């Protein structure tokens, strides 16, 4: 039998598309960061918030990290 988790765990995940050479400037995911800031400002008891703001990387490794989280 698994023990029930206590607290509140939130995973925020964003994946950027491949960069378009016609648009060389990087545009960050401000929506993701606004949600993160709102959650952290709420100071909810037991909140654990982790962000994966991805640009490339190994999808299987990231999936394992999120699953472990």
Characterise this structure.
By secondary structure, the chain is an alpha+beta fold. The chain contains 2 helices and 2 strands, in the order βαβα. It has helices at 30-42, 59-68, and strands at 8-15, 47-54. The chain has a two-stranded parallel sheet. α1 links the parallel β1 (8-15) and β2. The longest helix is centred in the middle third of the chain and has 13 residues, at 30-42. It is flat. It starts with 7 loop residues before the first strand and ends with a helix. 0% of the residues are buried. The mean pLDDT is 86.
What does this entry show, briefly?
With 69 residues, this protein is α+β, with helices and mostly antiparallel strands. The protein contains two helices and two strands, in the order E-H-E-H. Strands 1-2 form a two-stranded parallel ribbon.
Mean pLDDT, rounded to whole units?
86
Percent strand: 15-25%
Runs with pLDDT <50, length 5+? none
> Treating each run of at least 4 consecutive H or I residues as one helix, how many helices?
2
Q: Strand order across the biggest sheet?
A: 1-2
- Give the overall form: flat
Helical content stands at 25-40%
- Secondary structure tally: strands: 2
Order of helices and strands: EHEH
Sheet bearing the most strands, described?
Answer: 2 strands, parallel
Radius of gyration from the alpha-carbon trace, in angstroms: 15 Å
**Which structural class is indicated by helix and strand composition?**
alpha+beta
- Terminal CA distance: 19 Å
């Amino acid at each position: 039998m698994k023990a029930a988790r206590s607290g509140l765990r939130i995973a925020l995940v964003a994946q950027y598309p491949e960069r378009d050479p016609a648009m060389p400037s990087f545009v960050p995911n401000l929506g993701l960061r606004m949600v993160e800031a709102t959650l952290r400002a709420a100071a909810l008891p037991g909140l654990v918030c982790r962000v994966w703001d991805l640009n490339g990387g190994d999808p299987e490794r990231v999936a394992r990290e999120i699953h472990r989280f």
